[in-house]
Amino acid sequence: MKRIRRDVGHFFREFTTSSPARFAILVFLLLITLWTTLLTLPISSASHSRTSFADALFTAVSTICVTGLSTVDMATHWSPFGNAVIYIGVNIGGLGALTLASMLGLIIAKRLGLRAKLIAAGDTNPLRAHGGAVGESQAVRLGEVGQLLRTVALSTLIIEATTAALLYLPIVSAGYSWLEAAWYAPYYAAMAFTNTGFTPNPGGIAVFGHDYFFLTVIMVAVFLGSIGFPVIYALSRDLLRPRRWSLHVKLTLVTTVILFFAGAVAFLALEYGNPGTYGSMNASDTVFQSFFMSAMTRSGGFAVVDIGELYGSSMVVGSMLMFVGGGSASTAGGIKVTTLAVLALSVWSEAKGRRSVEAFGRRVPSDVQRVAVAVLAWGATIVALATIVIAQITHAPIAEVLFDVISGFATVGLSTGLTETLPDSALYVLATTIFMGRVGTVTLAAAVAATSRSQLYSLPVERPIVG
């Protein structure tokens, strides 16, 4: 018996460290399977009837992948048991694919060895997952990985608990009972920090549409969840010493702030006269709601106004913001802000005729630039294919299909209203898109290429004409 346990333990240790990307994907698939099973149980629905497989699967994918899109009314369809399953699921999914895989590997292996540390470091700093030297100023040192994983768990607990405490009284002030608020507050806190966007009450967050304090707390929680655990970890150590921040932290924060203000200005300029959204609001409400919309399109998923009433121009802006998403190793989705930053810096350097890409006194290696291009290309390809397939199945307006597909890929959760009307075949396509967007194009590529062989020779150079 001891030998069997030893052999099983050895197998799991080897499996968790040999291919972290494939292990992470397997973990997510198993979680989705388990949550689908739980959500199909009669005890999970408020009517005590079995939820259809398509609705249960889609909700499970949206929960584990912290997306927020739904095909049922989240406030009325699920029972307390079903809501508890969803609440636990978003917190598990919010930890991230490789971080979650690393934690499980640590539990199974009972120790964090060198290879396991490399797995965790690969998630907390995606640059480690690719070839080429990575300066220690850009990386999380291996000796700090255990501390980083503790930071992930503690930051999630502390931020969600603080957010829930701040939301409790505003929820009571909105007319809900003390008992209802005791459930709604931690639910909203989890959905905000994990950037999911599910709402437990009829009417959703629109009920609190004029409560600036409530919406501000939600925005802050969404921001903290979207910047990424490595950034939270760095700020927890050197908040008042920005010179010690790594290049990743600086690029994440600067790009996030720029997109936040640029998005708000765009929504304000495009929607101020729209009677279906901001046209009936006063000036202060319009400005505030523009900032709120900008924050939510980055991955938050909450909406005070009806997304289906946005002008087409605003949907394009929202789609662009959603596609970018948040920070690496965060609860947000998209191609990530650092990917956009690296691409923008590469274009700027090329326009200036510089031979290297530089930022904040550091040089960005060429392999990171290639990864950024690959992530953009794969992300755009996934979105394009899913949009074509769903548009062909439904014959719905292409603008609405594209918006909801990008929202799914970037795990945002905003919808024009199309998702809840999709047939089962289109739901399966969108669920696959959500899964690929959450696991990440880099992780998927690493999983496929895990057994690739190194090329020990190089071919002659010949330059094609580009542009």
From TrEMBL:
GO CC terms, sorted: plasma membrane
Membrane-spanning segments: 20-41, 84-109, 157-179, 212-235, 247-270, 320-348, 368-389, 425-450
Keywords linked to the UniProt accession: Cell membrane, Ion transport, Membrane, Transmembrane, Transmembrane helix, Transport
Primary residence: membrane
InterPro entries: Cat_transpt
Single GO BP term: metal ion transport
Subcellular location: Cell membrane
One GO MF term: monoatomic cation transmembrane transporter activity
Protein name, UniProt field: Potassium transporter Trk
Source organism: Microbacterium sediminis
